[in-house]
Amino acid sequence: AAAAAAATAEAEAAATADAEAPNDQKRVWRTRHNKCTEETDADPAWYQHKRHVLVYTYSGKPVYSRYGSEDGLSGTTGALSAIVSKVSTFFFAQQGDPDSLRYMLAGEHIFAFVEKGPLWFVCISKCGDTYPDLVRLLDRVHAQIICILTGGIERTLQSRPNYDLRNLLGGTECVVNSMIRWCTQDMYLQLDGYEPLPLSPAFRGIAVEALRSARIPNVLCGFLMAGHRILSIVINRSFKVHAVDLSMLINMIMSSASLRTGESWTPVCLPHLSDKAFVYAYISFIEGTEVGVVFLSTLSDGEQFYTISQQATTVKKTLATSGCLEHVGRGLGLCPIDLRAAGADDSSPRSDRSTRRTFPIPTPLGQWRLMEGVIHAAYFVPSLQQYFSSSVASPYQTRRRTKTLFRTYGRCRWLLRSAKMPSQICIATDHECFYVSLTAEYHMYLAVPRGISTGVINQFYQWIKSQESHLFLGHLPTW
Q1: For residue range 283-315, what is the model confidence (pLDDT) as tens digits?
Q2: What are the Cα distances from residue 26, in Å, to 20, 182, 292?
């Protein structure tokens, strides 16, 4: 009874958080995923899903499936394992440099394969995805599994091929499911970065100093998160944070209501630091908010937890008494930022003016008039590993149209795969134009209605430059 009550309370907390979360957050970190566990590869319904993700061992033993029961998919994973083995024997056995099957095309389906030691990751899609995007998705799924279990699982499988990995993954399927949704329904797949929370530099400075005052031995980094966006980070001088590692941890936290309740002390693996060992994450959210304090420690003992807990309490008090927490709440309420409102002027319909949001830096009405037509835009700074992504225009907020939007960005990147930087491309569909510009300093993504002036490109770039200090964290401070 107690367990049932706890589960109910967690579900209610998750539902409340969903109601208060920004639209892009609710789109990705949903409390439910219809896995269709009763389906097997003998059921016609299983083949109707548009994007399957499968993980299995080189012996064909299922480890994870996005849809259906793993026990009922052994025939499919066995067949895929046999195909990979035969193709390798026929085509690559005589080559000095070993290779393996990368993808197959079958009608409207593409089968993408990624080999990671004794594990095979396969995505079967009929959504029009490009092969590079599917590989990136499978790489992220692999990184998420390593983040949960460490690379030691690969050595275990090499010595014990029949070991059932599902025993270790039990209860964490929701984390992998959320990672797949994050990749397909957000800009995240296209960028090796993380998204900062838009905030005034003055209040961001308060958050940074609050973390810097928490100088704790054997701590790699500390950060404040507001939803899935980063408010501030402070790192150890000897540690370099990698965006993929950070996003794996963020996804774990966002996928688990229990990690956002009370104080948590959980082991996580950072693949780009070391895939052979855990670090320990202290996680504590400010009650009644989406703002969390996270510290990563190399020590796991109780004394370290107690020390971090005391410092986290001080950080929370600083945020509350300085007014920073209130401004963070406002900033989170504005996310994702609506660029169409930036272009609204006094000649716009009353309904548009009434929904106009306050931007991080107030700008004169009409200064960015062309941006009123923007469907979506994003801007990535590779040197900082940070990106900004706007809201999606209302007519495109259905799940199908949102996925198509981000998938088209991937197609633009694929067409530029052999171009030297700086490079740019524009793709026109029946109703939209997609513009992608890749340079060493920044990557720009823009989707607009067909027929709009090309001046919107420069207006968006100038808007980013005018808001830069609010949109990005800049270079990370250290202890």
Answers
A1: 999 999 999 999 999 999 999 999 999 999 999
A2: 9, 11, 17
